[in-house]
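Incident log, structure service

09:12 report received: a user says their structure output differs between two submissions of the same chain.
09:20 pulled the input from the user's history:
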Amino acid sequence: MKVSTEGRNLRFTTTAKTGSKVSWLYPLDIRYESVINGKNFSAISYLKKGKEGYGDPHERLVLFDHDEGVTRYIKDGKLRKTIEVSSFAYDPISVIYAIRVMEIPEVGGVIPIEVSDGKKMASGTVTVAGRERIKVPAGEFDAVRVTPRMDGVKGLFGDGSSMSVWLAEDDDRRILKIETSVAVGAFVAVLAKVIDPEENPLDLQSASGAAVE
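09:34 re-ran on a clean worker, output below:
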């Protein structure tokens, strides 16, 4: 998982690939890209590209048109669907990072969210599950654990996946760890490296995750 800047926008890139030992069971080599407005976190585009399972490689692009209040779902270069969405809707990747800028309630509290993958508009929740201290390659941190739910939307972290996200309990509130179920097991991502803000003030974080096990 990586965050980069494009002018005033932010790009979130997530890649997932099965290791050589299990690729015969379920080949996976896919990239997700989410572009948002860096000022207000509104979604601009969401891309899913690559090979998942034994089918042919594919490309799915979702364009968010906030002036018209719709998303346009483009499959392999052809417009396939247009749906109405609210201006508060996130895509399945940007919503993970958006939690960082939300006001986190006490343990047991719930934050409502809206997510669209271009095919559906779904109402979800972020529940504050607990607070704990965890250790990742980037260091040891006090963290708050939240459990997002995004039933009905497709994506690495959507479609009813069981997911936990650990956020640092400090002013930066970086994503420290993500655990979620996938088709063939579990996916774990941990914060590996933090970019110096002086090098690029808009960078939120840079992290790499483990292969699917």
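09:41 both user submissions now match this output. Likely a transient worker issue. Closing.
09:42 reviewer note: Residues 94-98 form the longest helix (5 residues). The longest strand covers residues 121-136.
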